[in-house]
């Protein structure tokens, strides 16, 4: 899916397959508690929480959280960023169908600082596409754009994670791209110790990295 020459129809099929895989694994909710806590704190001051989600893909995670926030009466403004204009079109369509208002911004979080800022800057299941140097740049760019906190979730490189990726990708998608990427992603993912070290190199001191089901980790950093 990282191939810029990927056919649009194949890209759409892969995005849909990954959305089903993310929903099955409940990846949407790994950052929810932190997002909700910050929303309550900011809403208590009379302000709407601003969340920037980078490498958003089809936007399935932020749209799912936006719907949950609406049910809980939390006021959140969502900005979705991705290097792929096509992915953002899919994300905008998904959000509109769900009745969720979003702003979309084409932005490559590896190549340059983000062109927007938020109270929170979040990222789900993207850093396994990065080598350590690129991951360091992404986290540094996220921190620079966040006025309150950074939240990240991704795959944990474990044998159990590899087995679950094989099973889930084949059960939930016919896309050969998803079948390949699911296994390649786990093999390329960072362990919890590795991502903690990368975050510190990026300038995110006092970072918290915790294990999450299934074979995931979550990282939170709060601006001092």
The largest pleated sheet is described as: 7 strands, mixed
- In CATH terms, the superfamily is Vaccinia Virus protein VP39
CATH C-level name:
Alpha Beta
CATH architecture: 3-Layer(aba) Sandwich
Q: How would the global form be characterised?
A: globular
What is the fold named in CATH at topology level?
A: Rossmann fold
The class by helix and strand makeup works out as: alpha/beta
Helix-strand pattern: HHEHEHEEHEHHHEE
Provide the number of structural domains. Answer: 1
Give an overview of the whole structure.
With 224 residues, this protein is α/β, with parallel strands linked by helices. It has one domain (26-156, 191-222): Rossmann fold (3-Layer(aba) Sandwich), CATH 3.40.50.150. It is built from 8 helices and 7 strands; from the N terminus they run H-H-E-H-E-H-E-E-H-E-H-H-H-E-E. The chain has a 7-stranded mixed beta sheet, sandwiched between helices. Strand 4, helix 5 and strand 5 (146-155) form a beta-alpha-beta unit. Helix 6 (159-172) packs antiparallel against helix 7 (176-188). The longest helix is centred in the first third of the chain and has 17 residues, at 8-24. The radius of gyration is 16 Å and the shape is globular. The mean pLDDT is 87.
């Amino acid at each position: 899916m990282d191939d810029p020459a990927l056919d649009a129809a194949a890209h759409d099929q892969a995005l849909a397959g990954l959305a089903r895989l993310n929903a099955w694994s409940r990846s949407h909710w790994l950052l929810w508690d932190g997002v909700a806590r910050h929303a309550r704190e900011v809403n208590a001051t009379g302000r709407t929480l601003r969340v920037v989600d980078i490498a958003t893909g089809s936007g399935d995670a932020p749209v799912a959280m936006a719907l949950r926030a609406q049910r809980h009466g939390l006021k959140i403004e969502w900005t979705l960023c991705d290097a792929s204009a096509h992915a953002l079109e899919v994300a905008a369509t998904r959000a509109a169908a769900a009745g969720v208002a979003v702003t979309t911004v084409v932005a490559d979080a590896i190549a340059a600082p983000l062109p927007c800022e938020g109270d929170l800057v979040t990222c789900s299941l993207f850093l396994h596409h990065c080598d350590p140097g690129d991951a360091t740049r992404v986290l540094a760019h996220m921190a620079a754009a966040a006025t309150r906190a950074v939240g990240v979730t991704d795959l944990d490189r474990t044998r159990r994670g590899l087995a679950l990726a094989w099973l889930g990708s084949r059960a939930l998608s016919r896309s050969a791209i998803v079948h390949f990427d699911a296994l390649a992603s786990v093999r390329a993912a960072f362990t919890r110790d590795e991502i903690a070290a990368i975050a510190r190199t990026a300038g995110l001191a006092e970072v918290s990295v915790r294990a999450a089901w299934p074979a995931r980790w979550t990282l939170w950093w709060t601006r001092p």
